[in-house]
Amino acid sequence: MRPLRALIISMRGLWSYPTRTWLAVLGIMISTLLIVFLLSVLYNFKTSLVGQVESMGVQQIIAAPGRILNSESSISQANLSSLLSYASVTSTLTYKDAMDVKDKLPEIIAAAPQIETVTHVAESSKTIESMYTGTTPDYLDMFSLQLEEGRFFTEEETNKEAPVLILGQAVKQLLFEGRSALGQKVKIKGIEFEIIGVLKEKQLIGFNFDERVYTGYPMVSNSANLKNASMIFFKFQSNEPLDIVRDKIAKVMIPNHGGIRDFGLLAPDGAINMINTIADLVTAIAVGITGVSFLVGGIGIMNVMLLTVKERTREIGIRKAVGARWWDILLQFLMEATYISVLGCVLGLAGSYGLLRLLHSFFPVLSAQFPLEMILWCLLFSVVLGVLFGISPAIKALRIKPIDALRYE
């Protein structure tokens, strides 16, 4: 019963000065809210991004312009310093690269080069800007895209440069609002296209599918006078290790690039490694910056407790005179400091959760998970913080002599 009695005495002492107590609680609450909210956003952003990368399929390789300087390692094996030396270069990727890899490597079951430019899409009564994107029929399966109506263009239509078009959901809404787009005509680069399909809405961090229009790669290349792809997506089916498949793709592509490897081959493991590396760096910076606010909050607790000890000197002397042990006094003041810290932490956690749900309502693509381990670590840290900053006031209370305390006014 001794701890319970100490807790009751602590509560009475603290709430004798409610303004001062709430200010101390507020300091811890703001510190907790800042750090937990930031860490939760980073955690959910990382989780969403990794989940979307994995949903694209573990057996997918992306060819992108650029490489890690002075390094033979792949992105999946790169550390932070290597990633910072990743050189972005003008794309030399071509439609031929994609077709050669698909034709020469039986393990490559799909290849989707992507060429793109921003241009005007004109309907009879409205003109908008959209990302004019050329690719192959494999693109649909590569990203698990679904059609709301109509169909995707075929391999034959791609090769013949048929003027057929697929609309992203945002483009369809802007041009036709509630009307069906199938069979309608639009003009791009002076060419009249027939709309044969509309994609369902698709949200993927890093890729905007909804504000694009899609047709065959040769059509975009010739009509927009573009030569090089921005990226090439490969899907493979093989029991061989990923690095071996990646090396095979590189060997097919390098001769098309004059014997120079001026491109990177990024697989989901590399993307996940990059995401984790960057997320860990940003998390460390966020903890370092917001952790200072916890230090300020802890100092606030200590100041409140020191004032409390001074104002309750006579009470401490009376308790000692009637038989209170040193550990009773120590327990009382440590409980008071811990109570302030834990209460501030709980309020901060509640505020963080509310802000996280609010953020999710504006950005649904960002999940709203609130990791249990983060809550437990935060509560544990608040207990440690309370004890740490409550030790000095508690020791000061222990040093008060009963005879001096009884004389104190």
Automatic annotation (TrEMBL):
Range of residues in the leader sequence: none
MacB-like periplasmic core domain location: 21-251
Occurrences of domain ABC3 transporter permease C-terminal (ranges): 289-402
Top-rank lineage group of the source organism: Bacteria
Recorded GO CC terms: plasma membrane
GO molecular function, one term: transmembrane transporter activity
InterPro entries: ABC3_permease_C, MacB_PCD, Macrolide_Exporter_MacB
Keyword Transmembrane helix: yes
Primary subcellular site in the record, as a coarse category: membrane
Tagged with keyword Manganese: no
Membrane topology, as annotated: Multi-pass membrane protein
Bilayer-spanning residue ranges: 21-43, 281-308, 329-354, 374-395
Location within or outside the cell: Cell membrane
Keywords linked to the UniProt accession: Cell membrane, Membrane, Transmembrane, Transmembrane helix
Record Pfam families: FtsX, MacB_PCD
Protein family membership: Belongs to the ABC-4 integral membrane protein family.
Xref: PANTHER family: ABC TRANSPORTER PERMEASE YTRF, MEMBRANE COMPONENT OF TRANSPORTER-RELATED
Protein name per Swiss-Prot or TrEMBL: FtsX-like permease family protein
Species, as recorded: Paenibacillus foliorum
